[in-house]
Write a structure and sequence with these properties.
By secondary structure, the protein is α/β, with parallel strands linked by helices. The protein has two domains: 1-41; 43-221, 3-Layer(aba) Sandwich (Rossmann fold). The protein has six helices and eleven strands. It has a seven-stranded mixed sheet, with helices on both faces. A hairpin with a 2-residue loop joins strand 1 and strand 2 (16-24).
Length: 224
């Protein structure tokens, strides 16, 4: 008989209650509105979205990476593992409760990635950090691992992450040779078209084999 889940914490959000559940030393779930958002036993695409952005940066001096979305910390951990000791990784998380979880019961999953000396934490909207970038000297890579990712409901031109203006701001924030990667629950062909129309060359990946395979977009500026 499977061990029952224990609810460790609950936080009210506009999308519904955000919950952290546990049923073993390293078996956790994050849910929102009763829907599983992340599992500590299935995170291959979260690793891939960081690896595909950061591994090509090997050899760069003091690379700077921006990650939008903390989750359980797996994307941050993968970025740190792929980057050199002089890197700087800024992770932006909108919900302070998620930060508390990653500093508390979830910390052991990622060797306490939030307290790695290369990590910079921003509690707030990653879109604000991208918009505040001063040009092509800011980020070697921008990694967005956000709830659901681009999909049909986010195709409007004014979407703060996936719309035309947002993609143009992201393009402007990248250093020469920069990389933009995006995690998505499902493949969204119109998003590829928007990326291409706004100055990016795009590759689409579906990490892993078997089971449900999420989507990772890898976009690089076409002018490079």
């Amino acid at each position: 008989m499977a061990q029952p889940w224990t609810v460790l914490d609950t936080w009210s959000t506009p999308e519904g209650d955000l919950e952290l559940r546990q049923r073993g030393p390293k078996d956790f779930l994050i849910l929102v509105g009763g829907r599983v958002l992340m599992s500590s036993t299935a995170f291959r695409s979260e690793l891939a979205v960081a690896d595909l952005a950061c591994k090509p940066l090997i050899g760069r001096v003091k690379p700077r990476v921006l990650i939008g979305g903390l989750g359980m910390g797996y994307t941050l951990r993968a970025a740190l593992d792929a980057l050199p000791g002089d890197a700087e990784v800024t992770v932006a998380e909108l919900n302070p409760r998620v930060v508390q979880w990653c500093e508390g019961p979830l910390a052991a999953l990622t060797d306490d990635a939030l307290h790695d000396p290369r990590t910079r934490l921003h509690v707030g909207d990653v879109a604000v950090l991208i918009a505040a970038s001063k040009g092509p000297a800011d980020w070697d890579a921008i990694v967005l691992d956000l709830y659901e990712g681009p999909h049909e409901a986010t195709q409007g031109p004014h979407d703060p992450f996936w719309g035309k203006a947002a993609l143009q701001r992201t393009l402007a924030a990248l250093r020469p040779g920069g990389i933009f990667t995006v995690w998505a629950e499902d493949f969204d062909p119109p998003f590829v078209k928007r990326l291409t129309a706004n100055g990016f060359h795009v590759q689409v990946h579906h990490p892993g084999k078997g089971g449900r395979r999420h989507t990772v977009y890898v976009a690089v500026p076409t002018a490079q």
